[in-house]
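cron nightly-structures :: item 1 of 1
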Amino acid sequence: MLDGNDGPWSTIGLQVGTPPQPVRLLPATEQSSVLVVLPEGCTPSDVPDCTYERGFDFKINQSSTWSEKGLYELAVDEEAKHGYGGNARYGYDTVTLGWKGEGLSTVPGQVIAGFATKDFFVGGIPLNPTPFNFTNFNDPKPSLLQSARDAGHISSLSWAYTAGSYRHLSKVYGSLTLGGYDLVRFVANDVTFGLTPDSLQDVVVAVQSITTDAAPTPLLSAGIYMPINSMVSHIWLPVDVCRAFERAFGLVWDNATDLYLISDEQHDDLTSRNPNVTFKLGPSLTGPSVDIVMPYASFDLTAGPPLVDTPRNYFPLRRADNDTQYKLGRAFLQSAYLIAGYDRSTFSVSQALFPRDGDSDSQKLVAILPPPEATSPRPSGDPAGDGGGGLSPGAIGGISAGAAIGIGATALAIWFLYRRGRQRSRSMAEPELEPQLPLESGETATPSEMDAHWAPMELEGKKTSPEQLRSRITTFEISRCLT
């Protein structure tokens, strides 16, 4: 089964704590801490199998290596601009990549944020290498990406991600690569973007125009700057641009849900026509650009409880009140392949491709090396010339476990490329977190949602062991490039 109440979305398997507890997470491009759902995130009034639907929970009291830090407001500054937030129980614990038995890297002492709020229905795996700070900047805690780099588990502070597209004809799932990228998952281009100095939103593009073959005039003609943020599901655009989408696609805003709900008749019509929307992106509002084409399949998403009472088709477009809310969220990353190279502070955005699983050319992994080792010619599409080379079959050790079952199975290939290289320290730090006072029993507050259901509870529903998880949920492949 695919995860999320506004997707479906491909998730990544991690294990947290000692003994390891399995959780399913979504990539979080702007996060430095691991986000996990706590048991308090599900109540008797929630949907059946709530714990399963939210990617499993992390039981702090069952981990012998948990080190408590305290209750803080979730460090989601950019997402808070859209009304998302809540409190989290922060601490340190051990993180193991992949599922039990995969034999992948274990990284101790990672910052963990356990939350209950349903603003983020599924937890997140952090992709930002910026250190995490509590209260002041004097004791920065390395991010998961930085820790993996320092331990030599990945070649560089880099990653590549596309969310996949379950509605695509070939039903291609997401792909996350740490320390490199998958050459067959995108159309190469020569446009290079620079990461901004703001670690809270460092992946920002200029949207020069938005057009569609469903309308004779542009949906957006005057360019705007927009961050790409995978923690946000939707595409947030100016109201006048949303109005243009409404006219082109016959969308109607639903005030009760704040969503563009799609009727069955609309869905059948749009699926049949399958119109395209083209985003022209560049480093600036004029000049070099790359087109990212989103077919209707990438807008064909399903909302579930608690967003709506029963599952409904919807169009993942949201109205921005001002320019601080402009975002290209996870829906956009279904059709885009994002490669970020923090060693050189650059990134690239490319049209995503959808290779079929099992095809002989369904993967070609390329390691991104840090600057001192970048001696190879730059392959077209490589972010800012970090360098790299294709991996020969003999250089890749792969493990494939589990079998996808039915059309509801989750499959996500996450690639860890290992190549030892020189380390580079980082001086950037996230804004500090001030501790939040625990709420008394029965007391309520806004925007926190942890307080209302802090007491431990046993949830009814189908329980899944890690071994069952591997067979029911995912075809999970890990590849490592060895020196």
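cron nightly-structures :: done
Helices lie at 50-53, 77-80, 144-150, 239-249, 264-273, 466-472.
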